[in-house]
Amino acid sequence: MVYIREGAQHGRGVFAAAFVPAGTTLMTFKGPLLRSTEVDFEDYHLQIGEDLYLGPSGDVDDFVNHSCAPNAGFAEGLTLKALRDIGPHEEITWDYSCAIDEADFVGFPCACGSAQCRGVVRSFRDLDPEVRERLRPWALPYLRDRYR
Fold first, then answer.
1. Which stretches of the chain are assigned E, i.e. beta strand?
2. What CATH number should be reported for the domain holding residue 108?
3. Nearest Cα to 136, choosing from 147, 120, 123, 121?
4. Dihedral (Cα; 30, 82, 125, 140), 10-degree rounding
């Protein structure tokens, strides 16, 4: 259903092998459970709780890139689903702010290239309230619960 290749926008990314209808499960993120003191913040990691992270799995989930106008989001737990139809060979992206909620996270420049680009990837807590509310249905469960 998906494959990894170099993309023009982000370097290595995950792409749809064929047409993917909206609502399709794309993948489930996995990896070793880590506390913040165990995370190598220079390596791939995914925040899944206040002090809980997934380390790299070595699989396709490590290579899904960010977009401020993503075509995928977290619908149930760590399961990434297509938010809209995804065309063959289209890059699969999700909004990284839908997982990050660190008080001291300074963010990083966004180069997603979308018309909705916010310019900086920030913690969910630091997004404008209207952006946070728009993204909440696709955020990880701990953020959906925290920001009801």
1. 2-7, 11-16, 25-28, 33-34, 46-49, 52-54, 65-66, 72-76, 79-82, 91-94, 108-109, 120-121
2. 2.170.270.10
3. 147
4. -40
Q: Which residues sit opposite 81 in a β-bridge?
A: 25, 73
pTM of the model: 0.93
Q: Which domain holds residue 126?
A: 2-146
Q: From CA 30, how far away is CA 56, in angstroms rounded?
A: 8
Whole-angstrom Cα distance, residue 6 to residue 80?
21
Give CA–CA dist 38/127, Å, rounded. Answer: 27
Per residue in 106-141, pLDDT tens? Answer: 999 998 989 999 999 999 999 999 999 999 999 999
Q: For residue range 19-64, what is the model confidence (pLDDT) as tens digits?
A: 999 999 999 999 999 999 999 988 889 999 999 999 999 999 999 9
- Structural domain count of the chain: 1
